[in-house]
## 1
Amino acid sequence: MAGNGVFAEILDGEVFKYYADGEWKKSSSGKSVAIINPTTRKTQYKVQACSQEEVNKVMDSAKSAQKLWAKTPLWKRAELLHKAAAILKEHKAPIAESLVKEIAKPAKDAVTEVVRSGDLVSYCAEEGVRILGEGKFLVSDSFPGNERTKYCLTSKIPLGVILAIPPFNYPVNLAVSKIAPALIAGNSIVLKPPTQGAVSALHMVHCFHLAGFPKGLINCVTGKGSEIGDFLTMHPGVNCISFTGGDTGIAISKKAGMIPLQMELGGKDACIVLEDADLDLVAGNIIKGGFSYSGQRCTAVKVVLVMESVADALVEKVKAKVAKLSVGAPENDCDITPVVSESSANFIEGLVMDAKEKGATFCQEYKREGNLIWPLLLDNVRPDMRIAWEEPFGPVLPLIRINSIEEGIHHCNASNFGLQGCVFTKDINKAIMIGDAMETGTVQINSAPARGPDHFPFQGIKDSGIGSQGITNSINMMTKIKTTVINLPSPSYTMG
Ligand code: G3H
């Protein structure tokens, strides 16, 4: 159970502690923040409401710890990461239980998230020793006018303190996807988990604590965004921000100083379906891509753009599959579970009502109980409807009928987002042409969008983000290049 066994020390009465300087602590604010269970809509957990003063202390210890960590051999950093990965997997049950309770993730998916996270940490350790163990050697005489009098050595050095802000939908996996690259590269971490998801994240952090990382290297502060959000992101002690979430990221990037940013801010992933597509394959991917975790994934299929000639057939196939989705509690491992909050459910409902007023065809009856929204496919959606452009982040999927490939590409590219997209066709040449024309960070051919496997590059363009993630890209992003130039008194040519 959460907060029990090896995790007992992270709980004080009914409030989970925050983690700083290698210790679990109570905030001197004496205040806590409630985490509402999306299913019961009652308080499930409480976490500390850290103060700005506590953030300052955390930044100081993260800075000192980083200096020592940067002098820790790479193999040793990797060894500790492997240890943390094993501990994380060993304790998957209580962490998954927290995911079920605080973000209503279906039980099996919650376990998968923890296991995937352990694998990510191990892969990162392995990749880190390879890519950080080598640099470049350049000689000066390749540039006009130079003799071979200079040897240039380049290596990758850490940035310092990384501020990691993961979203509610993957509070463990998208936290470790920032923590592990940061640590292997010699940085320290200040983690600000989402409130909904904070308890899962605190358990994950304890696994790193149990692995024996040095004091102050990993820190996790909880609290209200209104009190410590801007304070953290604008803190002079932060040397890099890695953020995944909504358009708060745009505000953060405007306020952050001259530091590297890694941002992933959602998407409106289009699924373009051509006349020759295998419609059973498409329907299966629309279900998986549009409705897994109730559509609360940035990479979810968020609009289907299907050629009119096959639209009826596709709609029938998708309807048949939607009818088979189980709807209910995450504990029962239902396919569709309550969305994360009441405000999120209200927002989704607003999009549905707008589509209704403007004449969309409801393939199922709209049904909602509390935060639980039944899966809904909206046919005949038109560009004047909000749902054609906005991200519901819920189990509601719009379908737009198109009459040409150009129309599909145009809709995809008119979005302010550009995360991923997919195209279904048996004609690989067309798939490549369409994929190249789609203004998105990734295009999937004949499969739904997805971030994983976690070592693949993952990036969005336009409002979908800054920079690229994936294990190798994140390690590189969390380092700087340092060069040392050896100046020779006279030219020297090997074998010359
Ligand atoms: O929600 C944003 C995530 O990066 C999506 O990850 O494709 O593994 O669900 P996923």
## 2
Amino acid sequence: MSDTPAPAAITMDAIVALAKRRGFIFQSSEIYGGFNGFFDYGPLGAELKKNIRDCWWDDMVRRRDDVVGLESSIIMHPKVWEASGHVAGFTDPLVDCKVSKQRYRADQLFFAAVVVDGKTAGYVSALESEKTAAELQAAAELFKRKKALQGTLSPIVAKDMTEAQPDEIALIPSPATGEPGSLTPPRSFNMMFQTNVGAMTDASAVAYLRPETAQGMFVDFKNVVDTGRVKLPFGIAQIGKSFRNEITPRNFIFRSREFEQMEMEYFIHEDADWAKCHEEWIAWCEAWLKSIGLPASHLSRYTHPKEKLAFYSRGTVDIMFSYPFGVQELWGIAARGNYDLTQHATASGKPQEIFDEATKKKFVPHVIEPAVGVDRILLAVLCAGYAEEEVKDEKGAVEKRTVLRFSPRIAPVKVAILPLLKNKPELVAIAQKLHAKLKRKYAVFYDEAGAIGRRYRRQDEIGTPWCVTIDFDTIEKPGETFTLRERDSMSQRRITEAELFALLEEHVY
Ligand code: ATP
């Protein structure tokens, strides 16, 4: 991927279709009709996801001297989630439609009063999208026409259901039925999945699937400090599955019920300049996203307003990505003070302090937390990398090519090895030898079936940065060279085996 923006008109339909067609992402349990909010990663998707995880782990943990890794259990003591505040407060506001049985997140269900000549004549509603305001305006105009109301319609003022007054709720139409009267007032819905541990099924056996990986780092903080020879400032990082019973999973893998997070808790001295450290981590995250090929043009920042922050939070900045369905949160970087460690110290009765040699005092470290979803990154690289182009084939005829411009760092296949003809044993033997050598270190693909142009297109569509063709020049000319064909420029040049390894060494790290 280069720094140039992807063509504007990429649709989610095209991304979802390619993801299915080429084995990146499938619906979970598809043969049983799918399971809303759950997805499977096929052969190429699993490789792509692993590469994203590996790049993050290498850059975040192995290549830094101040961050160590952790793998904590998914099901933890239920008291963890009481202390962290998740049992009481990890909720989304839920609105039910009593007629259709549909459920909506109240902050994603919008409504507006239809005001004619200064008087409210009724209400319209629409679900959150890039077009919510336009849809509400159109609905208000239709309402006025249908009711044959005379007078001037005021421009609509969109609000979400968390802002609805009690007397308005009965008048707001359900998006499912179009009729008012069936929506309930918003109520809190806890998003943690519950399970029972052990043979009992009573309240004492209730446990939760973790809704974030972060608590593992807090609960094991003392273990890492006591065993890891770490010194402030330092971080603990973890990659793993998280589970949230999202009311409205949507936008493909953007918001699902089972997803994977890469989180890091960076512990700092209580007197450290947290704002500087926060900014450094935001910049690190942005640079990392660019290093795996996301174009700067698709990235932006959103600073959470002070009045919307949790009481303990000092500041949160989200790195946003321009998805086809709008600009949305990709990576949240939060300055959380010492809230989490203090909560666990109080709840467990085990101090979570560090001794300061300089002042001879104990204190609870503060923390900066960059938290990102692997699936959201994967969707971002699919969307930013996807392009449909018109190109000329070998005979000069114009044809369409679909290409995924993945960075070589994360591309599921780094190189395709293609003998020009499969019935020429000399070509095939060299190709197979090269394939065997390369695959010890890199994900490579061997393909001898079909016209060479078609084989190039197949690789373009799965984002393979380079194809290597073993052709007659390889055997006839001295120096054993191959044709190297580049995905993005489609240019071709000759390359030796040593040069090919050097190229991979430079770009795949
Ligand atoms: P959102 O506001 O989109 O629900 P959040 O602010 O609740 O996200 P965090 O709790 O900060 O998210 O989680 C950290 C990261 O985990 C998010 O930035 C996102 O990349 C990822 N994430 C959170 N919820 C989901 C989900 N349901 N599906 C996929 N990824 C998710």
## 3
Amino acid sequence: MRTQVGIIGAGPAGLLLGQLLHRQGISNVILERRSAEYVLDRVRAGLIEQGTVDLLDQAGVGRRMHAEGLVHDGVELSFDGEHHRIDFKALVGKAVMVYGQTEITRDLMQARAAAGQETVYEAEDVQPLDISSARPSLTYRKDGVSYEIGCDFIIGCDGFHGVSRSTIPAEVLKTYERIYPFGWLGILVDRPPISPELIYAHSERGFALCTMRSATRSRLYVQCPLDDQVEDWSDDRFWSELALRLDPSDAARLVPGPSIEKSIAPLRSFVAEPMRFGRLFLAGDAAHIVPPTGAKGLNLAASDVFYLWRALSEHYETGAMAGLDAYSQTALKRVWLAERFSWWMTSILHTFPEASSFEQQLQKAELGYLVRSPAAMTALAENYVGLPY
Ligand code: FAD
Ligand code: PHB
């Protein structure tokens, strides 16, 4: 079997790239280790930048997003008993959209099925081969049978724990990493959001975030120690801890209810360079991880896909390799800016167990400055809504 572009991973990066390439007449096959149901069951990101919205429109999957997504013109920051709104619209003339990763994945899967494009779910032992040659291939097993697909290019969209990144020789790959000394415990609950916009709360007990999936469903997070287990957190404990971290006026609006999902995610910053080796290209979490505080993970996967889509389209139209040759450098520029912003948002809003009293005072000064300086608020707004591609 042959295809032009072989894609590993049916997360948002792989599915979006597959759909954009298909609309350009470029054939592609996606190999995914899990089942479609498993992929759809993962609760992850919820907030998308205008650039991601535009890209989903270009992929022809924007209809439901525009009907059901919630446009947000700003966010609230809460700390020290004060509440501050960062007005994106007024500061930088842009907005963001609340539309869950699960819904994006569902829309992309449906579009792919409707277009008759092939996705192999539950593909075992996927391996990219001969990536330094002009004729790479992908091998995998399914139901005990081995297969090989010849490709022009292989795109690793297989997330942080995928196989693609480790195919790049260790002497070529440089990695950068920061592990934070806490995680986020998140619950999904069928209760209306307590506020029309997201609330990022800093308190001495730790960070908390009130976000949402719809007008009737909330997604709530609290910072927790790295070694905490989901079982340590009953719903009652979650609701009381959240209330203690919010401004009393916000806490008073909480209506506790049973969680329909509960999970803990460790926080990490990670970048692997280069994002290309031979005919293998990495996109999304396969190449980089950001802590979720800046809501950038999914949006970075989208900008990687944009650069690859443009470069592959140019290649198949003209034979040029220039865009593909520049991919790693182009994508990494934006990746590092999002890494910087996500690290900074994480540093100002969380409670760091090891922080000295000097560092604690600096953090207070930073937050105080942020909400009083239009210049500082503008810098936050510009990054939060998404830097240009
Ligand atoms: P993924 O979504 O990870 O998709 C990769 C796909 O590749 C998966 O379907 C996987 O099964 C498949 N795969 C892996 N290995 C193989 C293999 N060997 N062969 C074949 N297929 C393989 N971002 C936010 O902005 N806000 C959040 O709240 C948030 N929460 C998160 C919570 C968790 C637990 C995680 C893990 C991430 C979270 N993120 C969040 C980040 C965001 O979800 C990711 O940045 C986004 O999913 C990246 O998309 P992707 O397609 O690159 O990778
Ligand atoms: C979410 O809706 O899950 C979400 C929103 C903003 C973030 C992180 C997560 O910064």
